[in-house]
Amino acid sequence: MLxxxxxxxxxxxxxxxxxxxxxxxLKYAYLNGEEYxxxxxxxxxxxxxxxxxxxxxxxxxxxKISPSYQKVSNKDEQSFINVNGIKIGRNESIVVMxxxxxxxxxxxxxxxxxxxxxxxxAFLRAGAYKPRTSPYSFQGLKSxxxxxxxxVKEELKMPVxxxxxxxxxxxxxxxxxxxxxxxxxxxxxxxxxxVAKLNKPIxxxxxxxxxVEEWLMSAEYIIKxxxxxxxxxxxxxxxxxxxxxFSLDFxxxxxxxxxxxxxIIVDPSHASGHFELVESLSLAVIAAGADxxxxxxxxxxxxxxxxxxxxxxxxRFASLMxxxxxxxxxxxxxxx
Length: 336
Ligand code: PEP
Ligand code: MN
Prior knowledge:
Elements: E1 2-6, H1 11-23, E2 27-31, E3 36-42, H2 50-54, E4 59-63, E5 80-83, E6 86-89, E7 95-99, H3 106-118, E8 123-125, H4 143-156, E9 160-163, E10 178-181, H5 189-196, E11 202-205, H6 212-224, E12 230-234, H7 252-259, E13 264-266, H8 268-272, H9 275-287, E14 292-296, H10 314-330
Parallel strand pairs: 7-8, 7-14, 8-9, 9-10, 10-11, 11-12, 12-13, 13-14
Antiparallel strand pairs: 1-3, 1-4, 2-3, 5-6
The chain binds phosphoenolpyruvate (PEP) and manganese (II) ion.
Phosphoenolpyruvate is lined by residues 101, 127, 131, 163, 182-184, 205, 235, 267, 270.
């Protein structure tokens, strides 16, 4: 970190800043320049509050050289996450998670699960706890949904992904293989710290109004608690465009790869908000280097209790998977 300091400053005035630096046990060097001075800090800078430093009136600018998401940006960390023998990561096969937005009943989940497994999905996705914009919309089957999910998981021998929305439900997620933190909870730090302790893979969706730095800081919360099994999921951000539900931010795929070793997958269903757009987005993100997809599939979308409009039917899913294989091969990757 470089702290740019006004030239005319004297030692007494500088002392409180040096004291602040000393409390964090950092190495520092004071460099006298012609137009300004520079205080260079080295060491573990995670606890240094740049806003506090900027508040000294003789500080002209604070320049961070390394990011605050130190653990997320550690490229020595392994680049894949192993979920029951399925590896998710940048040098691995592309994985697909598919299933309905919500668990509606046992028959529905079993039918859809059977189909998506048949067409190549590695994981069954299905929500039991649904964060809905309207309090009058279907909120999910909750505990009953989790029991159905567990039953279908065992019958289909298929690992499952499901969203947790509250710490209170944490004990119910023992048999869920990947725990999803939804866009609306990306910055629910209590929840992040609690799920980190479960030592299970966490699918961390990007908040729809969150910057990449905020997203990676949320991942840092989980890794800091000792759980480095974080899978990032881009699901579209809010833009000025009303004709799609959100705007898929493709640029984060190569960007995340530059900044971190964490796997990055994409949700084309919530990003687009319409079933007709899901296939194109899926193929495009594979071409761009995504490590996986999470897709909403429903065999009777018109009866779905949530997100029917963006759910593709199993036959469309089958055709998407065929094309995805071709795109993956074209860039030298396989589909799981
Ligand atoms: C979901 O996966 O059904 C969901 C609610 O996703 P998001 O948090 O991305 O809106
Ligand atoms: Mn949904």
